[in-house]
Amino acid sequence: MKFNADKRIVFLDPDSDIHVTNDEKIDLVLSPSLYWVQRVKLPIKYVREVRKLLPSLFEDILPKGNYSYSVYKDEIEENTYFIFAYEDKLIIDLASSFGINSSNIASVRFSQSVLSELQTALKINETQSIYVKDGVVTLVPCCWIQESGEIDLQTLKLSKHTLTLAQFGHIVDNSSLYKIAGVMVAFSVLFLSEYFITQQKISTLQTQKNELFSKYKLKPTMFQNNALLKKYKDIHNNQTKLRDQLSKKLKEPKIRLITYKNNQLKVES
Amino acid sequence: MNRINPLYIGALLVMLLMLSLYLLSGAKQSLLEEKESFKQTQKIANELSGLKKTYANQKKSKRSIQRILAQPSLKLAEIKAEYKKSGLKLHSKSIDKRGLDFLMGKLLNASYDIRKLKIKRLGDEQASFELEIKW
């Protein structure tokens, strides 16, 4: 339990009349109309194990929707849990309709966790009151309860049981998000592994290239090597040409003089 | 609402994916270039090595020329050989037809870098002969 002096506590209900300023930080207390709650006794010791069962515990109760679930232990009775189902988008949209930006929401709690110790019924607006019945905070019309007092939100002791609203839960459910994220991470790992393998191949090729340079005693730059190759290719072409021309010219009769200079062959008869 | 916005995580993952893809495509491109460069180097090295062995092997050329000049058919021609660092000059004032045929056959069928050649008929059976080979 903690007191909250810096932030404003707001009881969020569709019938509430809420006015907030833009920079105000808000501790939201959700009206019972915004969630489904059950007090269940289960032969399970740990909350984390109960959390896995939540969708199935609400399976036949909830109308169609995209729900998130929450659970905490009932501190009074052993193996008893308060389990909740709520629609993130519904709560965020409602808060937003009162001008409460999700960035300004400091915390969110169920009224079950904040108001469970109520001794009397309390009016939360002109038409509704809340009171605790069998340990469960319940919303009822005002006319049902005669002696309703006004709720003083700022003196409320906030419980430790907060929940985090999934802003995008209605677009893609968590398991799909995890799968997409998993696939993306897997591809990233795959690509990065391939990157390192490729770098290794590049390094091997560079080593082999250096070995070629030393084995064949090549010049340090490819420009020099290309120039040298061109020089030898020219020699080879000239010599091939000389031999071809000579073999043809030597068939001529009565040759008097054969000269070859500057790659020019002259045969005089 | 202090949970990290999944959009940030999504954006981070997308960036990670894009970065890894970018790195990989860059590396693949480099690998292709390196392969091409290696092939090119290998080709040049082989060609250069072969041509050098053929035209710039001073020891081998010198030895084979000496062997040719030592042949009995060239004794009468009195061929003078001037060995230099960069090449060789051969000349004979008078070489007979048979000797000239033998010598030219040997020189032209081997791969010497012949830079100068002058063969002048002196008579029906005789000719003067000058030749310059470079290595």
Main attributes of the structure:
heterodimer, A: 269 residues, alpha/beta, four-stranded mixed sheet, three-stranded parallel sheet, 35% helix, B: 135 residues, alpha+beta, four-stranded antiparallel sheet, 4 strands, 56% helix, rod-shaped
List the helices and strands and how they pair.
The complex is a heterodimer of chains A (269) and B (135).
Chain A: E1 8-12, E2 26-30, E3 35-41, H1 47-57, E4 68-73, E5 80-86, H2 88-97, E6 105-110, H3 111-114, E7 122-123, E8 128-133, E9 136-141, E10 149-150, H4 174-215, H5 222-249, E11 257-261, E12 264-268
Parallel strand pairs in A: 1-2, 2-6, 7-10
Antiparallel strand pairs in A: 3-5, 4-5, 7-8, 8-9, 11-12
Chain B: H1 6-55, H2 58-69, E1 80-83, E2 87-96, H3 97-109, E3 113-121, E4 126-134
Antiparallel strand pairs in B: 1-2, 2-4, 3-4
Brief summary:
Chain A has 269 residues and is an alpha/beta fold. Chain A contains 5 helices and 12 strands.
Task: Give your account of this protein's structure.
The complex is a heterodimer of chains A (269) and B (135). Chain A is 35% helix and 23% strand. Chain A is α/β, with parallel strands linked by helices. In chain B, strand 3 and strand 4 form a beta hairpin. The mean pLDDT of chain B is 89. Chain B has helices at residues 6-55, 58-69, 97-109, and strands at 80-83, 87-96, 113-121, 126-134. Chain B is an alpha+beta fold. Strand 11 (257-261) of chain A pairs antiparallel with strand 3 of chain B.
